[in-house]
Model the fold of this input.
Amino acid sequence: MSAITLSGVVKQYPGGHVAVRDLDLAIPDGSFTCLLGPSGCGKTTTLRMVAGLEQPTAGEIRVGDRVLDAVDRGVYVPPEKRGMGLVFQNYALWPHLTVLRNVEFGLRMRKVPAAARRERAMEALRKVRVAECADRYPSQLSGGQQQRVALARMLAVDPEVLLLDEPLSNLDARLRLEMRTELKRIHDETGATVVFVTHDQMEAMTMATHVAVMNEGELQQVAPPVEMYERPGNRFVAEFVGSPPMNVVAVAEPLGGLAGSLLRYVEKRAGLSAPGCVGVRPEALRLAAGPDAPPADAWSHEAAVETVLPAGSSWTVQLRLDDTEVFAVTHEDPGVAPGDTVRCWARPDRLHVFAADGTRMTAWDDATAPVGKAAR
Ligand SMILES: Nc1ncnc2c1ncn2[C@@H]1O[C@H](COP(=O)(O)OP(=O)(O)OP(=O)(O)O)[C@@H](O)[C@H]1O
Done:
């Protein structure tokens, strides 16, 4: 069992900065969990604590039933005794060893016989497509090749827990895509528990079975990627996950125009009191031009088209609703031009309603869920 559990974990650095606050996080056995969040939110610190490279200031970290850190009982297991595979941004290959010897290193420490060691190291190098570099030294490799060697070094020892900190950051776009697929395949094959730090939401959304979003040292939400996208638990997650980001409009008093229209709609439809803001994803915002009318139960508002940005397979339309700029994304030519006036609309179940403190008002979801999804 390689589930990882962090309970009440705090990390305060010697200068006094609190990088991680009271973190409770359960990483399921065999999951591919991405820690996602803006720069400085505490992702790397969290991963380094799981690896044993940093010690928490408070709290407990366990893998399965094994306690690795328990600050109040003075328990701390050093990194080399945690049996985890690590690949960090600075992949720290040994400069005086060839690529092959670097990849064999962990196996040598585990006293694997020479022939088996070589075979496993070469297999790991083939997996990440740098087998032809086996006899070179790290200084003779590109940054991307070094990163792949670091991945091979980790894979060769076949650990049950893999900790990866932006391991694809030095690769070009094509190789990055290939390595994502490769890592997903490796995860499926080995069943290892993977914890992957990234600030790239596409990377998180495409690879992860679970995404944990952090902000300013605090965990915001943990959920499978689709659920995170469709039901963000608070305003921060709603605006952080998705590109272009969700349009979010504050609906606090005093109200006029767009905010008033949204507030009246939300109140009438679900009888909610005191929502703080309402959001709609760009692809959920539809345009009705000319004689087309929005569906009767939809929310709608008049909008002025400001710009239309075609991108081959989609169009991004910038709209002005009263004084608010919003974005709509369509996958068919919207047939509008700057200066046009259109009605934009959204189905009730595509609106996200948040309270004044930013938390999701699930009463809205319950009131507007399409038939058959009410129990979700
Ligand atoms: N050794 C340290 N001493 C003091 N403060 C630190 C130390 N390491 C990190 N920090 C601070 O802790 C906070 C969290 O840093 P961390 O590296 O965990 O963030 P991150 O989310 O991984 O960011 P990035 O995506 O930029 O790597 C930051 O404000 C950072 O400046």
In short: The mean pLDDT is 91.
